[in-house]
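Predict the 3D structure for this chain.
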Amino acid sequence: MIKGCKICGISDPKTLTYIVDHPYPPQFVGFIVNWKASSRYVELDKLKELLNIDKKKSKYVAVVVKNDESTLEKIKDLPFDYYQMYDCSLEEVVKIKEKYNKKIITALTIENKEDVKKYKDYKNISEIILFDSKGYEKSIGFDHNLLDEVEDPIEKMIAGNIKIEDVTNFKNKHYILDVSGSLENSKGVKDINKIDKFLNTVHNINS
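Done. Predicted structure below.
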């Protein structure tokens, strides 16, 4: 059974409204709040407007690369349920969690088994461990079989260029699927039809 899903890189109100109003909305919706290299980056004023949209059954996730104290201060009063932290030490994650009182998704970028093992350092402070590729704003995959030895009690989220047609491969893996690029058109804009197909596919697998 797929544990759930996250749609990441939302940057416009029309798409966000469609997602939260969907009959089978994702458990998580992600917003890129400080990684300007990404075409999905959302500036603060626009972010505030987006987050005025009622999240309903979904949880809002701030995606933050590195311990960016300036950005964390700017977003601290916004209605985020989780902070998804890339490239942060355990000590930094502990301080961020305590200071801002947010649930934490620790994101690890994976290339080999040694990268996977780093989850053990963060498992007691993070609500969720995200295993992602090293592509950051690029949609790059990695070998998801590397995760087979990760402990079952760990809440595992996986990313890395997961396409809609790949979803059935995870039906017995108990992962939360994190998708972004595969739900976009050739211009890098989120495609409502692809989002609908993805959410329906996840729902149908779990029904």
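The chain has one domain: 4-206.
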